[in-house]
Amino acid sequence: MSRSALSRRDALRAMGTLVVSLGSHQIAFGASIVAVRVWPAADYTRVTIESDAALSARHFMAENPSRLVIDVDGLELSPTLREIVGKVRFDDPYIGGVRVGQNQPRVVRLVIDLKQATAPQVFTLTPVAAYQHRLVFDLYPTQERDPLLALIKEKESAEQQAAQAVQDALGEFIGKMDKPVLPPPTAAAPAASAAAPTPPTQDQPVLAAPHTGKVDRLIVVALDPGHGGEDPGAVGPSGLAVALQLREQLNALPGMRVMLTRDADFFVPLQERVRKARRVQADLFVSIHADAFFTPEARGASVFALSQSGASSSAARWIADKENAADLVGGVNIKTRDAHVARALLDMSTTAQIKDSLKLGGEVLGQIGKVGKLHKGQVEQAGFAVLKAPDIPSILVETAFISNPEEESRLRDPQYQAQLVIALTSGIKRYFAKNPPLARQRAL
Prior knowledge:
The protein is α/β, with parallel strands linked by helices. Helices cover 34% and strands 22% of the residues. It has helices at residues 3-22, 24-27, 79-82, 147-176, 239-251, 270-279, 314-324, 326-330, 339-345, 351-368, 405-411, 414-434, and strands spanning 33-39, 45-51, 56-62, 67-73, 95-104, 107-114, 118-125, 133-141, 219-224, 256-260, 284-291, 302-306, 380-382, 394-401. The strands form 3 sheets. It has a 6-stranded mixed β-sheet with strand order 10-9-11-14-12-13, with helices on both faces. Strand 5 and strand 6 (107-114) form a beta hairpin. Helix 5 crosses helix 12 and helix 10 packs across helix 12 (414-434). The radius of gyration is 30 Å and the shape is globular.
């Protein structure tokens, strides 16, 4: 055999060895983009690139103007990836726009124009549930606002607007009244004292002195709609619609204010929901869900409290396991989680907290039972991670099993939603009437 034939054979053999050592996933032309998603919110904005193979990325910040630059390896620009440009909303609090292009062969560059100072987190998620590989960019503000101060300001603003509305309506009413004709003054009439008040007549309304007293103890209720964003939960009516209506009902009560863990469609990790409630020193935590069960026969609303000694039923255990998996589906940046702190936070739940949670759950369950069927006649218990705030009575309400067609249809009915909100409001009011909140360490 000639020397040239031997060299060609050796070269082919070496190439074959290289192919075997690399593996098929490493010699593929590149990953294919499955979908791109943008989730804007006041808390943070998430950008997700989903692909059929794992992606790696490098990022850096650039200034004047402020922007985040991301280089994604092993990727060719595709029409699906270009869609990210049109998915940015004009009211996104963090992203002004996105540009995307082929920076180098098999390297795509994304440039995210930023509206404010941002602390980005870039991480990957392995396939889970219905998702394939995900590359995630979370854009957080560098300075987190004080949520309790925001609630107080919101309450004061609402009170001022309500007072102004009353004054405007009263002024309009007085302006439309026919003014009485007064008799001309006579010389014999004694001079009226300037300080003497004129007694009201039927045509002259009595104007009450403005109420200047303030509520010294602001009652804060944390409402958690659950799921959201990358964690969609069951397909159907969500807990957000009920939570938004419940917020309006509770905010209308004197001295009460509601904090929502989310008010739009974005993902909030389980630990963050608990942290949000504790930051506003919430008096109650109510998580609202509308989930599917593994069998369509399951029906009826349920109320759950925390258990430290196992679930009260197999259904309660199944639902708790499903809810506790939210972080896996929604996607948490594990590198930013302090495992020790997370474990401490979620293991401090006390017997007193569980006892108060059962009281709250009993009041709410009793009122819900007046507007629809109950799955169980008592508050159930299981190890829900989202209910583990050590100092806040916490319950999780399953408004219905939407895997049951009849219940899904009912939960879509605005009239039934309104009845459900009234029942939840009544249950919360009854709990506070029997268990007045204690004074906070922090003055409001």
